[in-house]
Design goal:
single chain, alpha+beta, Jelly Rolls, 9-stranded mixed beta sheet, SPRY_dom, zinc, B30.2/SPRY, ubiquitin-protein transferase activity
């Protein structure tokens, strides 16, 4: 594999040397102390806190140990998972995540990964943390000494618990005090005026609302406190159509919540305000997770699940030059690239020989599970990454901030019978958001002097796909009920015959 870096602002080309750093297994050395032996609680806290620094950004060009970081984080994570099997240690882990983690985009990823991987605790253990140790209630939410950093972490941990313990356990931990705490944080009763904190409270409320009892409690409490608050937050998305960052995130989440979770009587659904009949391609994910959120025009996507989600284009090409671009709404981990026939749709982009992608925070190109350092710069919110596929020359180019990196790979473009097809692909870490432009709108980062085609010119989307990804689930079910489908038709696609019945809901 060869990489070439170009400065697009200069006429002469500057070739940057491309290096692949070796990866060595991370080994844990024995702890040796001179005076005192740290307590088990202190060791657990240290590993939890240090994991955020390991997973955070680094300069791979100057950090000689950069390639060992994934293995170091995995070792720390395995340690935390192992000790969390004991309930008292689970309490220590949860407390460390809520109280000691700093304000940083990588804190979000760290908390999501750890909460996802550690064993599920007993309901009594969770209740002890929420009600006794942190005393979540209205009093805490409106306290004058409110620590925004800690409350953000608490809301994120609650979010993960609601997703992980969905069902009766979720209803058990969502007490009246916890509901009151989240609702008061969300409506800004304390006037903390932190939009990100409000958004994290809203996202936690969404997850808890998955059960009927919890949803009724939330709707009732919000109606008493401020019934218009969610609608007011939605205006952020309308007022800042050209702005990105946390204000856009809040507006996007508020609009999605009003469409999907907390509908407002008489409000027109966003899906009905957009004409998507001309949209013929998108990036889709087959997991069916409702918290992988699509805008009605299918261009803006947000991953509010605990898992990294890989999305693949519905448009496939075999020859020529093709371009698409991604606009960063958040600054967390996102891998953007291309995949080909045979790619594992459940793996991250770049984890096998059939896909490759650029991760802009770490400035790393991933291919076949191997990381490669490239000098393209670390992306920021509102920046646009352009991706050009040249099948004829067997090259892929990435464009960012006036620079271009060209990658040549005979393996990725190796001929097959029948000929392989190529399509755009991205992997989104938890709680990340971006805009995908496959040609539906004018490009912001298109390379000059290059004759390429837009993927939107060859894609095809069925009305069912547009409805499944762009329409709120409740509205989709109502519309499906009006279809003239046969009695034995599938409840989801309304096309093929039923061969499975889900219990206890009875959907077929």
């Amino acid at each position: 594999m060869q990489i070439e870096r170009k400065d697009l602002d200069q006429k002469d080309e500057q070739n940057g040397q491309f290096r692949q750093y070796p990866i060595y297994p991370y080994s844990i050395t024995k702890l040796r102390t001179r005076c005192t032996i740290p307590s088990k609680e202190a060791v657990v806290q240290k590993n939890v806190i240090k994991s955020q620094h390991v997973i955070g950004p680094f300069d791979a060009e100057f950090d000689g140990k950069a390639r060992t970081r994934p293995y170091k984080f995995e070792s720390m994570l395995n340690f935390v998972i192992h000790v969390s099997m004991i309930e008292t240690n689970w309490l220590t882990v949860a407390s460390s995540l809520m109280e000691n983690m700093p304000t940083c985009p990588y804190t979000i990823i760290t908390i999501a990964v750890i909460m996802r991987e550690i064993p599920s605790p007993q309901v009594t253990t969770v209740s002890m943390v929420l009600n006794e140790q942190y005393q979540l209630s209205q009093n805490r939410a409106v306290a004058p000494d409110l620590d925004v950093r800690i409350e953000k972490n608490i809301c994120l941990v609650l979010n993960c618990l609601a997703e992980k313990l969905v069902g009766t356990h979720s209803a058990a931990i969502f007490t009246d005090n916890v509901c009151s705490y989240l609702c008061h944080i969300f409506i800004n009763s304390r006037y903390h005026n932190d939009l990100e904190l409000q958004m994290r409270a809203l996202l936690a409320l969404e997850k808890f609302a998955a059960t009927t009892e919890n949803k009724a409690m939330i709707v009732g409490r919000l109606a008493l406190l401020n019934i218009f608050h969610l609608s007011n937050l939605e205006t952020f998305f309308m007022d800042i159509s050209g702005e990105h960052g946390v204000r856009r995130e809040v507006g996007y989440c508020a609009k999605w919540a009003l469409d999907n979770i907390f509908p407002k009587p008489g409000r027109q659904l966003s899906y009905d305000t957009v004409d998507i009949t001309t949209i013929n391609c998108m990036l889709k994910n087959d997991s069916g997770n409702i918290y992988l959120k699509y805008s009605p025009d299918l261009m803006e996507i947000r991953n509010d699940t605990m898992l990294s989600q890989t999305l693949h284009g519905t448009c496939e090409v075999e020859e020529g030059m093709w371009f698409y671009e991604i606009t960063m709404i958040t600054e967390g981990s996102l891998t953007v690239g291309w995949a080909s026939t045979g790619a594992d749709t459940e793996k991250s982009v770049g984890d096998d020989m059939f896909s490759l992608g650029y991760e802009g925070n770490y400035r790393i190109m991933w291919y076949n599970g191997n990381p490669y350092n490239i000098s393209l710069g670390r992306w920021r919110v509102d920046q646009v990454l352009g991706c050009l596929l040249n099948i004829t020359n067997k090259s892929i180019s990435f464009f960012l901030n006036g620079f271009e990196v060209v990658m040549n790979s005979n393996d990725f473009f190796s001929p097959t019978r029948p000929p392989k097809k190529f399509f755009p692909a991205i992997t989104m870490s938890p709680f990340q958001q971006c805009i995908v432009n496959l040609g539906q709108k004018p490009f912001r980062s298109a390379p000059e002097g290059v004759q390429f085609s837009a993927l939107s010119s060859v894609g095809q989307l069925t009305p069912q796909l547009r409805m499944i990804y762009g329409m709120p689930r409740s509205a989709m079910q109502e519309r499906q009920a009006s279809f003239n489908a046969s009695e034995d038709a599938c409840d989801i696609c309304c096309d093929r015959a039923v061969d499975v019945t889900l219990h206890p809901c009875g959907h077929r």
